[in-house]
Amino acid sequence: MINTYEVFTDVLVLGSGPAGFAAAYTAAKNGAKVILVEQGGDIGGISTSGMMSHWTGTCGSPLYHEILKRSAELNEGEQKGKITINIDPEKLKTLYLEMLCEVGCKIMLYTFACDAICDGDKVLGATVVNKSGKTDIFAKVTIDATGDGDIAAAAGAEYTLGRESDNKMQPATLMFKVGGVDYSRAAFLGSFESKMQTDKGELQALAKQHIPHPAGHILTYRTTLPGVVTCNMTNCTDIDGTKAEDLTKATLTCRRQMNSIVKYLREFVPGYENCYILSSASLIGVRETRHFKGKYTLNERDILEAKVFDDYVVKDAHFNFDVHNITGAGLDKTGVQHHFTQQKGYTIPYRCLLPEVKENLLLCGRNISGTHIAHSNYRVMPICVGIGEAAGTAATISALQNRNLNDIDAAEIRQKIGI
User: In which region does residue 92 sit, left (phi positive, over 0), alpha (psi from -120 to 50) or beta (all else)?
Assistant: First the structure.
């Protein structure tokens, strides 16, 4: 028989990716009693277990810039204190843990959030399960930072899957690193629109010819380690990241592509002639699943116009429309990377974090209320940190002052964040 326990807290955060970490850290730092639940063995989600190469995009979040600064302080030798957007996943795993411990956040690793606890439209918390048994965690505010919005969905919050026209979602990727690269000659192509002509041909075109479908592009990034390059080149289309069987399919598909990718790198890409697989992510990179219906739905026009909302809680968010090809390799026809013309930062309103009907629940990260195209911009990690910082701040105000989330003024959230 599985043991069942009950626990009570001010704020419950589900998922510890950049958004969930930011929400938990901020809420605890502001004085709330916080429990952070993570299904894996490390904090950080895609930024650590997913082996993301760098912080792509940017955001005017004080916490995001604090993470960059504290990461730089962990550098060694001449690089100590030098701020970079490149990520050392191993150091970042420890930094996240240390920061959470500093503010007294309770951390539950190896723990899966399996159901919502509700009373009508009020979310009272979530049921989690781990090797110790089941625990019903009751919270004044629950923050769903699971990426896929698992607990918001379990609570009955309304959502759509993927793009509006057909519910198709961006492909999944398993990141990996190769060693043995000659940095003095190495090619680094950072976007689908990046091209490089060599004696053997153009590298993106060669990738499409020589790497099996649905992979077939080159994206290579510098790391913090000499001779080591992060590859964002595996690809699995036509999967639903909310289904375990599809996640398994994606993992198998991407792992089977890795040797072909290395063969391509060795044969065609300068500096990679002697490269070899060094490590790979333990977490599949799922880009898109549920888009929840909030009190406002952010759209692409809001981003292109750099709209400043009266109730904004995230500012200076900036990226492009990074829509990966839904049917194969490369950039989707709706995506824009280098040719994205809007250079101003945009804002995200508090209403995008509030589900339309449910109470005591905040959306956090890529599952906030937004369109398929808008999501391709705000889903990146720096912006998710900003969203998490806002969610953690709102949750603290609500929990400690016994105020309804819907009644909190965004200006009060901004003041506490310092934006």
Answer: alpha
